[in-house]
Amino acid sequence: MLSKFIRSVVQQGHANQRALAPFMTSSVRNSGTATEATFETRPYKLHKLETPPNSTTSCTRDEALTFYTQMQMIRRMESAASNLYKEKAIRGFCHLYSGQEAICVGIKGALRAQDSVITAYRDHGWAYVMGCSVTSIMAELTGRTQGMARGKGGSMHMYAKNFYGGNGIVGAQVPVGAGIALANKYLENNGINVSLYGDGAANQGQLFEAYNIAKLMNLPAVFICENNGYGMGTSVDRASASTNYYTRGDYVPGIWIDGMDVLSVKEAISYCVEHCTSGKGPLVLEVATYRYHGHSMSDPGTSYRTRDEIQEVRQTRDPIMLFKERILSADLVTAEELKKIDGEVRKEVDEAVKIAKTDKEIAVQELAADVYSNPLEITIRGTTPYDPYTHQRLSKIINQH
Amino acid sequence: MAALRAGFLAQNLYRTHFSKVSRFNYLYAALFHSSPPLNAEGMPLKMPSLSPTMMEGTIVKWLKKEGDPIQPGDALCDIQTDKAVVTMDTEEEGILAKILVPEDTKDVKVGTLIAVLAPEGEDWKTIEIPAGEESAASATTAEDTPAAAAAGGGHAHGNYGPSVRLLLEQYGLAAEQVPPGGPHGILLKGDVLKYIKEKSLQPLPVSAVPPPEVPKPAVAAAPVAPAPTPAVPAPPPTIGVSEDGYEDIEVTSMRRTIAKRLTQSKSGIAHSYGTLECQSDKLLALRKQYKNEGINVSVNDLIIKAVSVALTKCPEMNCVWQGDQLTYASQVDMSIAVATPTGLITPIVRGADFLGIEEIASQVRDLAARARENKLKLDEFQGGTFTISNLGMFGISEFSAIINPPQCGILAVGSGIVKIDENGSPVTCMRATLSYDRAGVDDDTAAAFLEELKNILENPVTMMVGGYKSQVDHPLAALL
Ligand SMILES: Cc1ncc(C[n+]2csc(CCOP(=O)(O)OP(=O)(O)O)c2C)c(N)n1
Ligand SMILES: [Mg+2]
To answer: What sequence ranges are listed for the domain Dehydrogenase E1 component (chain A) (predicted)?
Structure first.
């Protein structure tokens, strides 16, 4: 069943095809490429807001190259993870982000150093844009020492400065995100917090508790629903009484964004930064997107939707393809440059995979290292009370205030 | 006898494996030598693990040919895993340059190179086959620091894996007794096995029977009696004839799964048995009557209905394990053992207790036909609540069958036999043997069920009465 959601977005995609062309190209040129271009953003939908985010956005050549590289890197990493999983080099949980890359890249493109992010288990792309190296991500997936959590966390548990990680409990990251926003307010660091959750999580009660406290205290919190059409195998229409997720905050204003266009995402987040830092309180965003892979590696992803549906999105709405077309037709970059980036991305991921397959695992005693930031007891129970471990500090503590 | 057979089987597997390896080597060699001067290196496509338990797979069908362009997300081939046929797709873009493992090559190990993609823009005909890379290189563990060894004290954390622990427990051994042979003094399973063999140790007697292995429903419940296959198709491919004149038969992954599941069931579940004998003349008459009215149902269909009704009257018999939890199913989902060319499979007639007899007959016909063509979907043969295996049509008068976990009962139905009753008149008698899981079903429950069933079979009109109570009336009940 092709859900209403998909159909409406696909139609919208067609309707806006013309908007792909650059609105205006600046005249500053440099060896055949422009240094900056202006693009139209995809129409936003608003809830309890008067003014929408800007209908145009500018993108520099450097930004274009960065966004393209980041999205390609994530796509490539996820393919590599999929292959490693099918070789049994990655075990356990593994949720891939392919198709949703424009969201983390666009959001990160608008965030400032003091802003923070927390997301669910689909977190590899986020770990990457928040500063984890490709090697540290791939090695974490295979459980090796060069992993960013020394192989102890795995797919759902990656962290970086101002990135509060993947979280395995559906929806649980959202109240935590509200808490981080409260910390920002308390510390007066002018930062905002972005909490991401899925369309499935959007129906969890704890989200509404978080909206409430955030609005009550006017916290600098942005709650972002990544609507990829499905929560596991259940389409949004079958799960949600209202699929207008940007209106679900009721008294919290909201914006709907086409999450397949990285520039529209970025422009909307700039708007959110402005909104939150001027003391207007939280926002609820819905970012329309699509997930190419199954929910996790145990889901082939084709029993509740057709292959045609997936291929149609890949061919008409793919975020990387759309962005590539936009920046090429605006002369921001050349096709050769992009091809070169593709090659470099492939090489970097291949090398990371090699390390992820050959690196060592941690020694058994290290299981008890870095469990607490400030251990009050240094003895940690083993599998029985009679074989205790000793707590050690091996990694640098991040995100401690 | 059983041990002999097991040994024979193992030997066969060993041989299969060997002949396959050499075949692959040959294939690689042929490719390397026949290729003209090579240029760009191709992208490897390996046999994926498509289920958590899959170790090897068979490519049932290639959906792309050599030379076909490949887009990310395209379906490449259908692979038979240990559970089902799953489509493999790829994230790569390019051209399918070379298929290395042809359709129907049995049991290709996960990680084996199966095809090569040419990157976009390269000439796919001259693509280089990537050198055979090892998949999932096993992890080496960082050396335990001396300090930790001192603190932990050698074997303190049990420096061995679960299989070693299990063996130690089974043979009542302490880890220190066995000299370790692994790196860093790690105790390996092989060390323990060697030690056991050297000392000719016997496992300790097992005190308690573990609860039955649950969640995955068995692929098939086979009757113990060998199932005479009707209209045998081509015999299974033979691998070769060994010197002693025995033929090696290729063991399919389905057959291996059947072997594993049945052994687990028979050795892990407290099988108990009860046999009923009934007069089936009225049942046969009913069938004839239907037939005269143009309604084509078999005796088997009538038995399915009768058993379903008996189960609704005796719901304690219609139970399944969910983990350690025994639950009474809300309806009768009847698994029916069907012989197929590759082995037995049990498609399910769902809600058999509230289906009409004609509906049952047509579903059974459809399921059985598709089972023989290997076209059943996963949910069509997984998740029944009770199984019937009927060898009556083959003239088997009585047999017993192995329980299909997580179900708790299977009924083995024999053929009708004409006997003389006490008045000297001929009657047709039929025997059916119930195998039930004694952990979940008490003897008196089984007896009550058999009695109920006997009544229905001897007075089939009672099938029309009642038995519909399982129909759920609340629309949300199915979700609970
Ligand atoms: C509290 C809780 N309930 C259920 C689950 C199992 N679960 C994991 S992911 C998931 C679906 C979530 O879907 P959605 O929020 O749309 O996120 P997506 O996977 O699409 O990114 C469920 C039900 C869980 N992890 N935690
Ligand atoms: Mg979702």
So the answer is: 70-362
